[in-house]
């Protein structure tokens, strides 16, 4: 499984009073990493909405916490395509603590559904987006 990688730093706003990343912030980090992975794969979600009236929404997410990130740590988030159906994407996102030798902090399995923005009903992912998203599997990003 090939991946897209991006780095972020932990800021004060991301942490609790003890300087440890608040558990819900990992979902925000993952969202940013997914958006950048899609953009780098030439699958802009803005273009998907503007040209086709479609949007990806999180249908399901599973988070496994392994080691905390702390204030000022640098993280690297890997995003990889696990599976794709005509209307859904399954991705795995691994958050690693780059400041501590790439120790795995969190693993997030997320399923995205493609919906019509107007009706909020499932819709097929356009072929160009299928091809672009497959880059996350083939390692072209």
- The SS-based structural class is alpha+beta
Strand count, sense and closure of the main sheet? 5 strands, antiparallel
**Count the strands?**
5
Round the Cα radius of gyration to an integer and report it.
16 Å
Mean pLDDT, rounded to whole units? 94
Q: What is the helix tally?
A: 3
- CA-based shape: elongated
In what range is the share of β-strand residues? 35-45%
Which percent range fits the helix content? 25-40%
Low-confidence segments, given as residue ranges, are none
The strand line-up of the biggest sheet is 1-3-4-5-2
**Element-by-element helix/strand order:** EHHEEEEH
Keywords: Hydrolase
Pfam family, one: 4HBT_2
Protein name: 4-hydroxybenzoyl-CoA thioesterase
Family: Belongs to the 4-hydroxybenzoyl-CoA thioesterase family.
Summarize the structure in words.
- There is one protein chain.
- The chain is an alpha+beta fold and 141 residues long.
- The chain is 26% helix and 38% strand.
- It is built from three helices and five strands, in the order βααββββα.
- It has helices at residues 25-40, 45-52, 127-138; strands at 4-9, 54-65, 74-84, 88-97, 103-116.
- The protein has a five-stranded antiparallel beta sheet.
- It is elongated and about 45 Å long.
- The model has no long low-confidence stretch (mean pLDDT 94).
């Amino acid at each position: 499984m090939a991946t897209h990688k991006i780095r972020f730093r932990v800021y004060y706003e991301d942490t609790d009073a003890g300087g440890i990343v608040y558990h819900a912030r990992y979902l925000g980090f993952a969202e940013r990493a997914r958006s950048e992975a899609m953009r780098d794969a030439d699958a802009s979600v803005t273009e998907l909405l503007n040209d086709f009236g479609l949007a990806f929404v999180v249908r399901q997410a599973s988070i496994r916490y392994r080691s905390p990130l702390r204030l000022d740590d640098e993280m690297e988030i890997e995003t990889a395509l696990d599976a794709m159906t005509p209307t859904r994407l399954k991705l795995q996102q691994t958050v690693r603590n780059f400041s501590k030798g790439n120790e795995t902090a969190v693993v997030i399995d997320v399923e995205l559904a493609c919906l019509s923005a107007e009706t909020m009903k499932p819709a097929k992912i356009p072929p160009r987006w299928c091809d672009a998203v497959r880059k996350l599997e083939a390692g072209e990003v």
